[in-house]
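testing teh design pipeline on a random one, pls ignore if ur not involved
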């Protein structure tokens, strides 16, 4: 498939920009490898999710307006964060004029969603191998709002756009958890209810460890960050890598 000169605006969430720049670079490389002209608009900032999570809709208006103003000109807007894309897709209602928002939101894609729906799994050109057994954490926004996979609590045939994309990486073995449950991060929830948040994260880690997994991946680095902190505190031998890093071959890990 040719990208046909389509312009892609790369949105990099705040925490990735500050703490995990390798995820942003990996996303850029994967998109460019598939022929897209990718631009990173420098005036970008937070999508407003923390404010919206706390019910501060008036305060979030400027963030939403800036986001749409900045990315409206692109053919696609792609981000390595399901929760941020979900915020702009589903939570800007009332903050942006309805007609304008309706024209804008179809352009928004999480990275795996974009590779699956726009590029097409059959057209993926993933040059790197990742010969590891990997546990896939399905984060809440990506699972239940973006519908990137079938939630385990629903009695429907299994599907996963994330698995479909990852399975194109040579040597990878993808392991599903017993249940799709929140890791407990939830942004400010992890601060307000830290004990519950930590317990939820440890449950997710235990689920994956019980399947012999020592590497966990997902489409939201915020969730992985939360569980990574718990694993380090508990001295649990587990590594956490973003899907984009696996797709781009920008990570070096060993099982153990």
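output:
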């Amino acid at each position: 498939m040719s990208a046909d000169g389509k312009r892609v605006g790369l949105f990099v969430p705040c925490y990735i920009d500050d703490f995990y720049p390798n995820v942003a670079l990996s996303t850029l490389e994967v998109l460019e490898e598939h022929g897209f002209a990718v631009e990173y608009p420098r005036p970008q900032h937070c999508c407003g999710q923390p404010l919206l999570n706390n019910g501060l809709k008036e305060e979030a208006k400027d963030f939403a307006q800036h986001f749409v103003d900045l990315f409206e000109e692109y053919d696609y807007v792609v981000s390595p964060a399901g929760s941020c894309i979900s915020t702009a897709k589903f939570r800007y209602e009332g903050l942006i004029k309805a007609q304008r928002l309706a024209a804008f939101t179809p352009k928004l894609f999480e990275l795996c969603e974009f590779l699956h729906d726009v590029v097409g799994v059959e057209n993926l050109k993933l040059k790197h191998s990742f010969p590891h057994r990997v546990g896939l954490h399905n984060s809440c926004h990506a699972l239940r709002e973006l519908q990137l996979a079938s939630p385990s609590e629903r009695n429907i045939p299994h599907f996963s756009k994330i698995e479909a994309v990852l399975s194109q990486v040579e040597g990878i073995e993808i392991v599903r958890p017993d249940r799709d449950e929140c890791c407990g991060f939830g942004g400010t929830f992890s601060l307000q209810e830290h004990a519950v948040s930590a317990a939820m994260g440890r449950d997710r880690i235990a689920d994956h460890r019980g399947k012999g997994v020592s590497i966990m991946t997902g489409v939201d680095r915020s969730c992985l960050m939360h569980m990574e902190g718990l694993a380090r505190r508990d001295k649990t031998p587990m590594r956490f890598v973003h899907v984009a890093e696996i797709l781009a071959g920008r990570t070096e890990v060993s099982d153990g």
